[in-house]
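FAQ

Q: What does a record look like?
A: Structure on top, sequence underneath. For example:
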């Protein structure tokens, strides 16, 4: 299964591959045509692989906070969140390499109360300043328990486009797909103090499947 956000890119890559194969084998020496075609085919394969979208089985539990992204937990720190939670909280930052699945999933069920897109810089995604200086989209969700959760799609050095299909007022379901970040990025999940965090720096996460924490 492939991410719908990747269809235009995958179609273009396929057209380019077909065009290169046709032109090289008709106008270049056969040995050179094989080399060029094979090189383009490898790039085509990388593009197709990037937009894969495997099915995931989301753990059941109303109070669970699920990872919204595949990747590696690169930072867990205490912060003062003054945009949506407006309190002291814990930031969990997940770095996505170009090899990770980049489809994002809702970390929690609830009402999407806050959404804002920010244009910005393209610092390396593991840079702490990326959370506030890079291009990003911010999401604030009110859980049925009254707990608020804040999370951010953040572009990295390679990424140039954030995609999401949710809007303010939507009712989100934990584990459902809501968008993607293209070609290397970062996801920050800002968790209030009444959540028992169940990951540590260095852990690997899988979107819609790994448990980040549980609301007490």
């Amino acid at each position: 299964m492939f991410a719908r956000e990747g269809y235009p890119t995958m179609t273009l890559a396929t057209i380019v591959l077909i065009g290169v194969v046709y032109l090289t084998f008709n106008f270049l020496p056969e040995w050179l045509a094989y080399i060029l075609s094979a090189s383009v085919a490898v790039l085509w394969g990388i593009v197709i692989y990037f937009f894969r979208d495997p099915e995931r089985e989301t753990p059941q539990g109303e109070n669970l906070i699920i990872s919204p992204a595949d990747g590696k937990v690169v930072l867990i720190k205490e912060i003062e969140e003054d945009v949506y939670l407006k309190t002291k909280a814990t930031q969990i930052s997940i770095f996505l390499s170009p090899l990770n699945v980049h489809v994002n999933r809702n970390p929690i069920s609830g009402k999407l109360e806050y959404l804002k897109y920010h244009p910005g810089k393209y610092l390396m995604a593991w840079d702490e300043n990326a959370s506030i200086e890079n291009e990003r989209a911010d999401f604030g969700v009110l859980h049925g328990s009254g707990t608020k959760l804040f999370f951010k799609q953040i572009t990295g050095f390679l990424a140039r486009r954030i995609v999401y299909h949710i809007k303010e007022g939507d009712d989100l379901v934990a584990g459902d797909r809501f968008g993607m970040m293209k070609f290397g990025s970062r996801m920050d999940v800002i968790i209030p103090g009444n959540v028992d965090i169940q990951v540590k720096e260095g852990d690997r996460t899988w979107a819609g499947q790994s448990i980040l924490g549980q609301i007490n």
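Q: Is there anything notable about this one?
A: The radius of gyration is 20 Å.
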